[in-house]
Specification:
The chain is of the alpha+beta class and about 500 residues long. It contains 17 helices and 21 strands.
Length: about 500
């Protein structure tokens, strides 16, 4: 493993048997897994380049059990890593050798469907797609739709602020979550937000969404559901040059048109997806845009004409417009299967995630090509083009000496370029361990310390998911927060400001 993790606590490891017994008393039956063979499936998340078996796995199925587990671990100084479905692509759920892996897979019940208030109250282990399926009979759906929506859990979506192909028009997870129940490391259970779109006080939902398991463990989520649009149609537009496709994206947005989704794939990704899904993608183009327009039928018809004209002005070479719901879904099937499709043409790949201003797309693509030549590794590109979220897939073979190191360096340079072009290190996958050591490329030491002060307010001992997000973790006391125990401040004779 090239990425360093916090040093293991030998005192905790020496008490492993005692800890396992205590956890079994809290979560009886099959709720605790401690054999090396059975824990093997938890050694990694979707970023499979990095693996680390946990000390023990705990699978509670009630909020009260989560609370008791966290309270026990806090009292004993034991680290905890929350985990959803394990589809994270940033290493956010990578276990710790001396830590408890707290799996939320048993929290898979939808607690309430409230059509009057247009919300669903769900447990975190419910998959993203299952929410839409649960309300489809009434003509509703949940808008954020990551490519892994058939498997990824809504709790993980909140932890990483996931997006998807329709986030351009309907927003990321943070724009579609109204409330949650969260358990702090102390075991305290908080309810934040609710069914109302507006809540008094600080925007704590905004703080928790995207916090990557560093602040608390989410055990219930209230999400907004939307009525399905009257009409949705998609255009599949091919270009002889990637730069022309990027220009088309910019012109569509510049014309005041906000598609339901707008995705781009380059030639390697097009060929991989077509061989896998047979969606009818043109194979003689360098770039493909999939543009979905939704709303009243008369509006969609007009927007299709405008988008088609913009694409032609940008030099499009092919244009196919969906004529049925089945055809629209087929257009998207290839894009949503792009990641597994690329897995068929390369033994391994790293899926990167960075965001740039839309106008910088041609520069970013040119830089990726230069880096591909520099590191002698292939790269297939898929993008949430409308909001500038890049997903370069760096192709490598882990069995060839030095290739994973070159892939990591290639990916780091792509993310540095995103920041250089005015973008950010992540659009939806989170920081995890993958981008942790690149945080200083974007944030100053003052910025990072302030972010850690926020973590200290929720987790003063730093026991929740340590080793993630922050390249250098400070003790809360070093950041100006002194721990108060039993109502007494340590070293009360020291002057404080």
């Amino acid at each position: 493993m090239a990425i360093m993790m916090p040093a293991s606590d030998t005192a905790v490891l020496a008490r492993r048997s005692e800890i396992v017994a205590a956890l079994r008393a809290i979560v009886p039956g099959e709720g605790v897994i401690d054999s090396p063979a059975e824990m093997r499936v938890y050694e990694s998340d979707g970023l499979t380049a990095y693996r680390q078996p946990p000390m023990v796995v705990v699978l509670p199925d009630t909020t009260e059990q989560v609370s008791l587990v966290l309270k026990y671990c806090a009292a004993e100084g034991i680290k905890v890593v929350p985990r959803g479905s394990g589809t994270s692509l940033s290493g956010g759920a990578l276990p710790l050798e001396d830590g408890v892996l707290l799996g939320l897979g048993k929290f898979k019940r939808i607690r309430e469907i409230d059509f009057d208030n247009r919300v669903v109250v769900t447990e975190p282990g419910v998959t993203n797609l299952a929410i839409s399926q649960a309300v489809a009979h009434a003509g509703f759906y949940y808008a954020p739709d990551p490519s892994s929506q058939i498997a990824c859990s809504i709790g993980g979506n909140v932890a990483e602020n996931s997006g998807g192909v329709h986030c351009l028009k309907y927003g990321m997870t943070t724009n579609n979550v109204l409330g949650c129940e969260i358990v702090l490391m102390s075991g305290e259970i908080l309810r934040i937000g609710g069914k109302s779109a507006e809540n008094a006080g600080y925007d704590l939902m905004g703080v928790i969404t995207g916090s990557e398991g560093l602040l608390g463990v989410i055990t219930e989520i209230t999400v907004r559901i939307l009525q399905k649009p009257e009409t949705a149609r998609a255009l599949m537009v091919g270009f002889a040059e990637v730069e022309a496709a990027g220009e088309c994206v910019a012109r569509i947005i510049g014309a005041g048109i906000i598609p339901g989704g707008m995705e781009m794939m380059d030639k390697p990704a097009i060929h991989a997806a077509e061989a896998f899904v047979h969606a009818g993608y043109p194979l003689d183009v360098e770039a493909l845009l999939i543009i979905e327009l939704d709303g009243p039928a008369i509006e969609v018809d007009e927007l299709i004409k405008r988008v088609e004209a913009i694409a032609q002005a940008c030099g499009s070479t092919t244009c196919q417009i969906s004529t049925s719901e089945a055809e629209r879904n087929l257009f998207w099937a290839g894009r949503k299967a792009a990641f597994p499709a690329v897995g068929r043409i390369s033994p391994d790949y790293l899926c990167m995630d960075g965001t740039i201003p839309r106008g910088a797309l041609p520069k970013a693509l040119a830089r990726i090509r230069e880096l591909s030549e520099k590191y002698q590794l292939g790269c297939a590109n898929v993008f949430h083009a409308g909001d500038g979220n890049l997903h370069p897939l760096i192709l490598y073979d882990a069995n060839k000496p030095g290739e994973i190191e070159r892939a990591e360096a290639f990916g780091a340079d792509i993310l540095r370029a995103c920041v250089e072009f005015g973008g950010v290190l992540t659009g939806e996958h989170g920081v995890g361990i993958e981008k942790r050591d690149l945080m200083p490329e974007m944030f100053s030491e003052v910025d990072l310390n302030q972010q850690q002060r926020l973590k200290c307010a929720f987790d003063a001992q730093g026991l929740l998911n340590p080793g993630k997000v922050f390249p250098t973790l400070h003790r809360c006391a070093e950041l100006g927060r002194m721990h108060v125990h039993a109502g007494k401040l340590a070293f009360p004779d020291i002057p404080r400001f």
